[in-house]
Amino acid sequence: MNPTILLILVLFVGVEISFTSVIWANVIIIAISVLIMLWHRAPILSYVRLLLVPLIPAVGIWFSIRYFSTAQSVHFAWVMATRIYAYAFLGGLFTFSTTTEKTLASLEQNAHIPSTFVYGMLGAFNFVPKIRSEVKIIRASAQMRGINLHFWSPQLLFKAIVAALNWSENLAEAMTSHGFTENAPRTHRTVIRIPWWNYLLSVVSLVGLQLLLLSGLQ
Amino acid sequence: MQQKAAHSNRWHLRDVILITITSIFMGIIFFVTGFLYNGLTLALTPLGMAPFANDILLGLWTMAGPLAAFMLQKVGAATIGELLASAVEAIIGGQWGPSTLISGFVQGFGSELGFTFTLYRRYDMASLSLSVLTTAIVTFAWDLVRSGYAAYHPWMIVALFITRFISMWVFGALLVSAVTKLLDRSHLLDRRHA
Amino acid sequence: MSKINLNDVTFHYEPTLPPVIEHQNLAFDGGTFNLLTGPSGTGKSTLLKLIAGLYPAFMGEATGTITVNDQPVVDLPASKRAQLVAMMFQNPSQQFAMETPRNELIFTLENLQVPADKMDAQVNDALDFAGVTDFADRKFTSLSGGEQQKVSLAVIVALNAEVILLDEPFANIDPDARLFLLTQLTTLVKKYHKTIIVADHDLSDYEPLIDQLYIFDGERHQVHQADSGEAQTRFAAFEQRQHQPAPIALPAAELSPEFTLDGFTVGHQAPLINDASLNIPQGKFVVLTGANGTGKSTLFDALVKLQTYTGSLQWQGQEISKLRARKYAQYVALVFQQAASQFLTITVAEEIALSLKYQQTTAWTQSRIDATLASLDLAGRDDQVVYSLSEGQKKKLQVLLMLIMDVPTLLLDEPLTGLDLVSAHTVLKLLRHAVLEEHHTVLMITHQLTDVSQYADYHLHLSHHQLSYEASL
């Protein structure tokens, strides 16, 4: 499925289940996500991760609703716990249906997000390994001066921004010299299209969700 | 001829790169807080107080907006800065959770309001504190629905809100202000054309 | 008419600062290979960025006009300008937007609005010319500095720009890659009539290649074209400054070791240092040399726990990978290659106060610091922002800050870069003093070898993935 269409669909479903309290809707969303992940042959470990990561917050909220909500409703406790899992599995569904590069390319070509944002972000992501080692360097060099920097130390974030300023300047200049003009038209070696069935599938999914929410199921 | 670029509200390539790289830095620096969050949640779960873990640390995740607003001083900088940060979280975390992007937007919008109310003229502790207040209110309204906070007893709702405000003030105002003071004194932002 | 013309160009970074370039008139002819030289930090890179149209768009304020093919560069949109003037940047790893070389070339051609069906052929030709084909689909993060500069050349070829500017392009790359790039650049001039300007402070290998030499005079903020006499003098002076080695002792076997390498291997993709076994003695001044990109800094990173390794690397009999970083930093400290990495505050006085606050002994008193600041020509700069110091001043301050800490073992990565000869001697004297009087261990990487043998005890050399002591320096 086209990443832009899928992203919009996933966001829409995510917002809608935030406003409704139907356990079955959450469970069915989780089930459909698992089916799609199976179809994309997601590794076993990713299911384990998706089950474990939300476990602590889901259990936490279940108990707090049971203890401290005015109604102390078991039903609402389960709504909240399954909602957290539904968010996580919607994320899993999206992650295994596409890649970051395809998503950004589709956002440029289909959603017409300004190219400055698309390529600025792509360029910045090349710095991830450098950023990891820079954080280590900042910490180590402070230790060598007798100072231990913590995540709440202003100097740590300040030094990080100093590096970010430097790198962003250098990369933006280089990209400009590689012909990148902010928000100017570009050609595309790979043109990304939206097949007609994407629209159909989105409409069917959304209608299905509304029926589910209105069906009187809990 | 005299050549110099003028200040504008447009986002330039280097602004996008700067804010994205800064967000990645913050993601990596604050990575440890993930464990802190889980530990706190676990500790508070038997007491039924787990949501407090979220509100105690929430300030860390709402720093990107005010920081971007300070660094770029543009209309919309807080919103777009926070949205970029949430996209970074989605991509680096390998988890394109819809909730990440939605919360990013809600937080950014909340933070933006504070700067809008000062007509984008003040970038100091007062506007930061106002921005923290609007962020706390807007994100709390969203959590009343999304995280089911509305179902709690009124005293718990008030306690959660106060916790959230304090966390956001400590990180989003106090820490951001300390960092931006260093930036101001270094004059490193002066050379960049807006 | 010349290819590139500068007409009364003046450039400031900020109106309050003195100009970097002042009333500059200059012309470069088409189809020539030009070398621009001068001390680091004078403004060579500023001049290139002005010609490339990046300044004042990104920074600073300019007056006057710069034309390429009679077109003012500032008036062109970036995609048109890129096809006229291309640039290779100083930091190899900070010039690509995409993940792989092939995608960077596609990105470039898309920017130029090349039709999709024409792209692949152009991409492959450019990759081939620059010798990138073999690693075209590898991630940039896994490529060496030399490989990354080859990709930069491929982008320049794909842009097919008439003017090619190179800003200190060989600072971080190995000699083989440098030679290959120089050969291909010469081909671009001779066969394709491109106009090339390279900014470089290192003049080696250029004399037979270039048509014109340009010299940046930092005092006058101006560049002038050297006539053949001046060019010859310059090259001859550079050759002479090239260092005459002096004999130096080899370490005796009975010296107690500070560091012990045993089957030590380190490297990112391929090993840089392979299966090295030797001792680095305690309480001595050891100089580490080796060509660019051979792994000297990587060895330092391993010595301070910033880099993983295989085999054994011990500090005073303890395996470094097993030591606690925080504690270890009180015994072994690194003076980073990027001076700014070491700064934590804003002004010179604040930095010194910070080092005084955390120093391990009281060997450095305020009066000793003041005297040293004066001897380093840094006196009276207490309130200056450290980031606004020149590169040389940053280096000197950084070395002083780390000396004040009084850590027993100090590793220094290129502390002499950008320093004039007098300052270099002062720094070397300070280090020598730390070894002789305070019994510290000093291990220093340097390219600048002039007179270093007067201060050092031993010379450690890295080449062909091996470390060995040399009898001359």
TrEMBL record, chain A:
Subcellular location: Membrane
Mode of membrane association: Multi-pass membrane protein
CDD domains per the UniProt record, alphabetical: EcfT
Source superkingdom: Bacteria
Keyword Acetylation: no
Broad class of where this protein is predominantly found: membrane
Keyword Membrane: yes
Keyword entries, A-Z: Membrane, Transmembrane, Transmembrane helix
GO cellular component terms, semicolon-separated: plasma membrane
Transmembrane regions listed in the UniProt entry: 6-38, 50-69, 75-96, 196-217
Name of the protein: Thiamin ABC transporter permease
Source organism: Furfurilactobacillus rossiae DSM 15814
TrEMBL record, chain B:
Spans through the membrane: 16-37, 49-72, 125-145, 157-183
InterPro entries: ABC_thiamin-permease_prd (IPR017195)
Pfam family membership, one: ABC_cobalt
Keywords carried by this UniProt record: Membrane, Transmembrane, Transmembrane helix
Top-level lineage group: Bacteria
Transmembrane helix keyword on record: yes
Keyword Amino-acid biosynthesis carried by entry: no
Listed name of the protein: Thiamin-related ABC transporter permease 1
Automatic annotation (TrEMBL), chain C:
Protein localization: Cell membrane
Gene3D superfamilies: P-loop containing nucleotide triphosphate hydrolases (3.40.50.300)
This protein's GO CC annotations: ATP-binding cassette (ABC) transporter complex
Keyword tRNA processing listed: no
CDD domains membership: ABC_cobalt_CbiO_domain1 (cd03225)
SMART domains: AAA
Boundaries of every ABC transporter domain copy: 4-243, 250-473
Entries under SUPFAM superfamilies matching the protein: P-loop containing nucleoside triphosphate hydrolases
Keyword vocabulary terms for this entry: ATP-binding, Cell membrane, Membrane, Nucleotide-binding, Translocase, Transport
Gene Ontology molecular function terms on file: ATP binding; ATP hydrolysis activity; ATPase-coupled transmembrane transporter activity
Membrane topology designation: Peripheral membrane protein
PROSITE patterns: ABC_TRANSPORTER_1, ABC_TRANSPORTER_2
Family to which this protein belongs: Belongs to the ABC transporter superfamily.
Cited PANTHER family: ENERGY-COUPLING FACTOR TRANSPORTER ATP-BINDING PROTEIN ECFA2, HEAVY METAL TRANSPORTER
Protein name: Polyamine-transporting ATPase
Species of the source: Furfurilactobacillus rossiae DSM 15814
